[in-house]
Amino acid sequence: MKISVVIPCYNEVKLIETVIQAVKDAPFADKEIIIVDDASSDGTTEKLREIETLVSRVIYHPVNQGKGAALRTGIAAATGDFIIIQDADLEYNPQEYPVLMEPMLDGRADVVYGSRFMGGRPHRVVYFWHMVGNRFLTLLSNIFTNINLTDMETCYKVFRREIIQSIELKENRFGFEPEVTAKVAKLRCRIYEVGISYSGRTYSEGKKINWRDGVSAIRCILQYNLFG
Predict the structure, then answer these.
(1) Strand 3-9 vs strand 82-85: parallel, antiparallel, or unpaired?
(2) Residue of 90, 80, 77 lying closest to 26 (CA atoms)
(3) Which of 57, 101, 52, 49 is nearest to 76 (CA)?
(4) Which of 15, 66, 153, 181 is the most buried (most CB within 10 A)?
(5) Which residues pair with 194 in a beta bridge?
(6) Burial category of 65 from C-beta neighbours within 10 Å (exposed 0-12, middle 13-18, buried 19 and up)
(7) Where are the domains of the chain?
(8) Are 71 and 10 in contact (CB under 8 A)?
(9) Are 100 and 194 within 8 A, CB to CB?
(10) In whole angstroms, what is the distance from residue 163 CA to residue 135 CA?
(11) Could you read off the pLDDT of 42-98 as tens digits, one per residue?
(12) Which residues are within 8 A (CB) of 221 and not within 5 positions of it... i.e. 6 or more apart?
């Protein structure tokens, strides 16, 4: 069994080496680590060129396209049996890979979502309206997919490789989350949720998502559930 960890990366020069080490130190010895640098402008690209031998592969986008585009690139390159999505900001803890993988390894799941809103794991207290927005988007998504997720917008998602590579993904930015949710629901995949911890960042610490991405998520929920 091999796990591919796909890490989309944009302007994370302060954290990227720490993230790489955290993923390398995470449970499961046979890990393929793929980083997609989305044309960073803060020195991340140069840093990755110095340390790229630490991971399985680094792919460099010549122009910035967005997180969704970086994920498409990384997913297409993955060769593991399972693909874990890992953000490069360490809001999510790689030591929790066994929690994410449990339903997969038991043969119960095709897709696993790591929920920030279930279970009793530690959570940094940050933005109230982000929480409200996430819950609203999850509710709206559930209405159309008829599945009962608690955290559709979570970064931590695990897929059987053959499933995620069979899905045509189109969104370039943060619309990846509602798009992939709509599409795995339509495939009637066995979807599980597990509770995870969350160390959210503030905007001064580098958080990138904003209200425009929330509006775009609503558009994605309607588009991919109603029109495919």
Answers:
(1) parallel
(2) 90
(3) 57
(4) 181
(5) 114
(6) middle
(7) 3-226
(8) no
(9) yes
(10) 26
(11) 999 999 999 999 999 999 999 999 999 999 999 999 999 999 999 998 889 999 999
(12) 137, 140, 141, 144, 178, 182
User: Superfamily assignment of 3-226 in CATH?
Assistant: Spore Coat Polysaccharide Biosynthesis Protein SpsA; Chain A (3.90.550.10)
Average pLDDT over residues 210-220: 83
Query: Amino acid identity of 116?
Result: R
The Cα 23–Cα 12 span in angstroms is 15
DSSP alpha helix (H) spans, 106-160: 128-145
CA distance 180 to 168: 9
At 76, list the tokens. 């297409």
Q: pLDDT-based confidence at 207, cuts 50/70/90?
A: low
Give the pair of three-digit tokens for residue 40: 């960073």
For 157, phi then psi, to 5°, come to -135, 145
**Mean per-residue pLDDT for 146-157?**
96
**Helix residue spans in 78-127 (DSSP H):** 97-105
- What's at 194, amino acid-wise? V
- Residue 35 has which token pair? 């980083």
